[in-house]
Amino acid sequence: MSEAVGELTPPNRTLMGPGPSDVNPRVLRAMSTPLVGHLDPAFIEIMNEVQQLLRDTFLTDNTWTIPVSGTGSASMEAAIGNLVEPGDTMLVPDNGYFGERMAAMARRAGGNVETVAAPWGEPLEPADVERACEQYDPDIFGFVHAETSTGVLQPDVPELTEIAHDHDALVIADTVTSFAGVEFRTDDWGVDAAYAGPQKCLSCPPGASPLTVNDRAMEKVLGREEPCRSWYLDLSLLEGYWGEDRSYHHTAPITNVYAIREALRLVQEEGLEERWDRHRHVAGALKTGLEAMGLTFNATGDVWLPSLNAVRVPDGVDDGAVINTLLESYDLEIASGLGDLAGEIFRIGCMGHSARPDNVIFLVGTLGSVLEREGAEVDPGAGVDATLEAL
Ligand SMILES: Cc1ncc(COP(=O)(O)O)c(C=O)c1O
Questions:
Q1: Which backbone phi and psi does 4 adopt, to 5 degrees?
Q2: What CATH number has the domain spanning 25-269?
């Protein structure tokens, strides 16, 4: 036998990285309420409520709106794995880490992948999407609304969906880092399927991940010649549980469904548009403060992503050392860059329950003083003053 394992005492961090974000205590309390069975009439009522709250947050009337069991990659694979049939062509962006994951999933589903090119740190240009649609005639076009690896918000979504639809392609949107924090309108913007993760702007622990699919896309899924390659994520089977029948498919992660219900209730209480405004306001103060201190943002203007701030690492500074000091000395989590931007940016989240004035004041002050100690030419005092003023 191994030695007795001690009580669970994780450190009390402030989560300002790319997710998870801090969880509202109400969500944690909901997770400690008693289990009921996944087919209990009381749970079926909870399922109905969660589905409606998800529709309200995606701004959609789609019947097919569910929390997929698993993390954001599960709702992502549910969208891609069901909509991409063997031999289909999926057009994906190549300007970030999660566009590459879309490509990997589409290939596993038996699809051919073509890319729309844009540099890491820049959005897709509608003219490039148009050219790629003409060249490749895709069945599916996927894009990342909020690219967590680069801090870039994809603007012009209605224009992109129109181009794809003109070429008879269905559109899948990755809204993992924008859902419930940054404006996204599924129906008004013509998006056929969108997926999200709960642990970002919704501030809910990972485990049940939002997905919405419109009738046109569901028609393709239900008309497939070959079944979806994943049994677990096959929407034609999941329809039995989340659709009219409410019959067993797999045991739902009940506690995670309680959690997402409470997190979505918090969105409803705050108001969706008010929540988008809070993210812009609080993250805007963070941006103002960091710029006043002497730092530069990687993405600015209409592609700045309030929920994920990509800040350039000052010359000569070791990003890993800064991130470790913040974690070890201040219990403050931020992250480094990925892929083409590894070593070049800090990724600073401002999501959900973490998007609070006290957090950004703390972050600007501590990041500034750690950078100064690392030899960067920054003015932490000017940063904090500007943050306070902007708030
Ligand atoms: C844009 C984007 N898509 C997909 C995912 C995958 O989500 P998860 O890590 O919850 O599986 C993430 C996670 O950070 C993400 O940021």
A1: -60, 135
A2: 3.40.640.10
Q: Do 147 and 117 touch, CB atoms closer than 8 A?
A: no
Q: How many residues does the chain have?
A: 391
**Segments of 8-73 assigned E as strands:** 14-15, 64-70
pLDDT tens sequence across 50-80: 999 999 999 999 999 999 999 999 999 999 9
Number of the ligand 1 atom closest to the C-alpha atom of 206: 10
How close is the Cα of 389 to the center of ligand 1, in Å? 33
Ligand 1, CB within 6 Å, residue ranges: 18-19, 71-73, 76, 98, 144, 148, 174, 176-177, 197, 206
Identify the CATH number of the domain defined by range 272-390. 3.90.1150.10
Cα-to-centroid distance, 381 and ligand 1 (Å): 35
Q: Do 25-269 and 272-390 show the same overall fold?
A: no
**pLDDT at residue 339 tops 90:** no
Q: Where are the domains of the chain?
A: 25-269, 272-390
Determine the Cα–Cα distance for residues 95 and 111; give it in Å rounded to an integer.
20
The pLDDT tens digits of the residues spanning 105-144 come to 999 999 999 999 999 999 999 999 999 999 999 999 999 9
Does residue 92 surpass a pLDDT of 80?
A: yes
